[in-house]
Every structure is written in structure tokens, then in C-alpha cells.
Amino acid sequence: MTMIRTRIKSIAHYVPEHVVTNHDLTKYMDTSDEWIRERTGIEERRYAHKHKETTTTMAARAAEKAIQQAGISKEDIDFIIFATLSPDYYFPGCGVLLQRELGITNTEVGALDIRNQCSGFVYGLSVADKFIQTGTYKNILLVGSEKHSMGLDFRTEGRGVTVIFGDGAGACILQPTEEEGRGVLTTHLHSDGTNAEELAMINPGSHGGYHLDDVDFGYPDSNDPGGIFVTQKMVDDHMLGPNMTGQLVFKTAVTKFPAVIQEALDATGYQSSDIDMLIPHQANLRISAFVQKKLGLRDDQVYNNIQKYGNTTAASIPIAMSEAHEEGKIKDGDLVCIAAFGSGFTWGSALIRW
Ligand code: COA
Fold first, then answer.
1. How far apart are CA 83 and CA 112, in angstroms?
2. Nearby residues of 331 by Cβ (< 8 Å), 6 or more positions away
């Protein structure tokens, strides 16, 4: 019996026009180009237009290109998977907003929102792969998109997080293929919630202080019915942004990345030397360099573009994959590995025969 696998039929990206250099950030916070380059490799990032661009509109621009490149019409899409940590609304998720933005009126289409932060694209690919293998869907639109610039703290207090993140979107069309040996060969997903708050944006939320009673969120001590989503203290004390214990994230990432890549290689019987292109989630150039060294990969086997875009979370892998493909660095028949690690913590990998 012929095996059905998932093929990345097309891949595209969109980044906003507005370039923000490290030097630009020094106008708002005590930081320097040298510090940011040395610790992260980042030279500049893009920020979306404050009012005219959203996580969904950027996703739509990337999706339109992917749909065109796949040679299909938007009406052929039968499922949408949207990965983001910076959605337009708390709810509903961006999946239905993207459906509307693209003008897809077919209500047979399902829209799934993925909340796995930096691992979102790998999680989304893994879910899509199962739907395609079982014959459920034939044209899945998978996107990762982020508008981080709306939620960053531009004071010096926020510099440890703010300098790292940027905006952008990547999208792909996934289709079934029966071509021998082609497509997604394996996917691997992991999670460990022990350190959930170490890379997180916890406010606003329904936590009410649970697990966090050493922090004063300004909850009134009363028996009034209902919980409180956001308090004045959270606003006044700048508690509505992301926080990160950078060194813990760094140390955990450099062990999980190589391990989950090795897991994908072991599952398929390949060696790291067989990888034509590794596209790591663009978290930090030093993390990618560490992973490259650990796996013994040459420079031409690893693609990095964090220098230009910063960390774009769920969008980083599809943006990098799209650029690598455009530059001819991923070709038909290549063995492509993607891997991610991030908030949760969650991590994952996939091996794809292009
Ligand atoms: N500019 C200048 N100085 C900064 C700064 C910035 N943007 N951010 C932090 N600093 C300062 C700190 O205040 C600290 O100063 P102090 O020694 O006077 O207290 C000093 O630099 C060192 O801070 P530290 O947080 O220990 O730096 P680090 O070497 O761990 O580098 C990261 C910070 C964030 C670059 C690093 O931990 C990292 O890359 N972690 C992984 C992050 C990541 O990948 N996140 C995404 C996961 S998907």
C-alpha cells in the first residue's frame, strides 16, 4: 500500500517594513548595539504598524503568497492552523480572523489555534501531518505570526526581553503526497510545565494569584463574586508584559534542542551529517551556534536570520524556511530538519524530505 505523507507544497513570509535597529532601541532604554549583538546576534528587527497591521493581517499577507505559490485558490483550503502568542484578541483566536481576512466563506473549513509559543509551528505541523495522513484534509494552511511590538516594555526595566523580539509571519500550504520517501518523515513533541512562569506573560489572566501568592497583584480582599482579570496595580506596576529568566531558558534550550533533533534522526535512521538544512527556531544566535557545534554541522547546513528579524516566536521557523527556500538553500529532495524550544517549556522537531 502506498503511504500518504505530508508535503510542504509552498512556503512564504511577510515582515513589516519598519526596521528597528539596536541603536534605535538605545533611545528608549539603557542598552547598546554591542550588548545585544554579543549576547543574541540580533542586529535589527521589524515592528508592525501600530494600528494598520495585526498578527492576523501579517499572517494573511504571508498566506496569500503561499496560496499563490501552491497554485491553488483560497477556496481550496480545507483547514487553517494558526500558531501565535500575540493574538489580535484574547478570544476568539486568530484562526477565524485569518479565514475572514482571506475572504474564505466556506464554513466547512475548520480553524485551529495553537498556543505553544516558540514551538507553535512544529506543534502545528505535527497536528496537520496527522490530519493529512488520515486523509481528512488535502490543503491545510499552517501559519505562525507574531506582533510582539505591541506588548513589550520599552523602559530599561524591560530591556532583557524587549531587545530580543520582533514581528513577522510565515505561512505554508500542506498537501498529501504519495511520492516515495518525500514529505514529513517524523515529528516529535515535548512539554514540561515545571518552569511555566520562567518564560511567560501571566497577566491578564484567570490565575487570581494561585501558584504566585508571593506576588502582590492588587487583588481586593473581598468576597465579591467573580474573579478579576486585570487590576489597576498590574497597569501601574507594568505587570502586563512578558518576563523571562534568560539564563534558565538558555541552559535548558541548549540541552533540549540537540536531544530532540537526535530523536528525529534516530526515528528515521539518519545521522546529523545527512541533514541538508537545519532550521532552528531563531531564539538566539548563540543557542543556534551551540546546537550546530553539538551536532557537528557545517555552516552551510544551518540557516539563521535572527540577525535581521530578532526572535519572532511562532513565525521564526516558517520565515527562515521561506527565506532559505527563496535563496535556493533548500532544494527538492533535501533533508530538512526543524526544531524549536520555548515557553512552557515546550519543544519539538520534525524531519522533512523536501
Ligand atoms: N542591554 C544591556 N544590558 C542588559 C540588557 C540589555 N538589553 N539586558 C540585560 N542586561 C544586563 C542585566 O541587567 C545584567 O546586568 P547586571 O550584571 O548589572 O545585573 C547583565 O546585563 C547580565 O544579564 P543576564 O540576564 O545575566 O545576561 P545573559 O548573559 O543571561 O544574557 C539573554 C541575557 C537574555 C541574552 C540570555 O540569557 C539568553 O539569550 N537567554 C535565552 C533567551 C531566549 O532564547 N529566549 C527565547 C526562548 S524561545
1. 9
2. 276, 354
Distance between CA atoms of 30 and 41, rounded to whole angstroms?
18
Q: Residue 183: which of 114, 136, 128 has the closest Cα?
A: 128
Domain assignment present for 105? yes
pTM of the model: 0.96
- Can 311 be counted among the known catalytic residues? yes
Residues 91 and 187 in one domain: no
Looking at residue 25, its pLDDT comes to: 97
Ligand 1 site, residue 35, Cβ cutoff 6 A: yes
Is residue 48 lining ligand 1, measured as CB closer than 6 Å? no
Active site residue 325: no
Pocket test for ligand 1, best of 39, 251, 312 (most atoms within 8 A of CB): 39
Could you list the residue range(s) of the whole structural domain that residue 123 is in? 5-177
CATH number for 167: 3.40.47.10
Give residue 1's pLDDT. Answer: 66
Write down the mean pLDDT value for the chain.
96
